[in-house]
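Listing S7. Sequence submitted for prediction.
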Amino acid sequence: MASGWSTAYYSSGWMDAEDSPVEYDWAVLVLEKNLGSTMGYLNVTTDLPAMGYACGVYGYADELNKAESLHISTGTREVGTTNWFTYNATTYGGFSGGPIINSSGNIIGVHKGIQESTGNAMGTRITPDIANLIASLR
């Protein structure tokens, strides 16, 4: 039986912005059932790997007709700012909202989509505010 969620936290900027800038594209859902106590938690970090260092993204690849299976795509971190970054992993429809992880398995961001100007994957960075929110909910 799947668990539902009871509370959602998200950036108010996402609701106010017409074109959903990447820095606002995140959400944290509190589940009705504490799955972390049985399945475990992924750690989050605000530390991005240096440019050129490995990262990966998890998602369900709708475009490959394999949405029933979780996939990981790896690449390297590229450019970014305090709120977003790009990386050169191959992603597909169904990866959006998936965790972007560093080589230690810590979440460093949330996959948003593809940056049109470069063709690189793009993610919202885990900022100190987002990391503190997640820590307060555990």
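Caption to Listing S7: primary sequence and predicted structure tokens for the chain studied. The beta strands are 5-10, 27-31, 54-60, 70-80, 84-87, 99-102, 107-114, 121-125. The radius of gyration is 15 Å.
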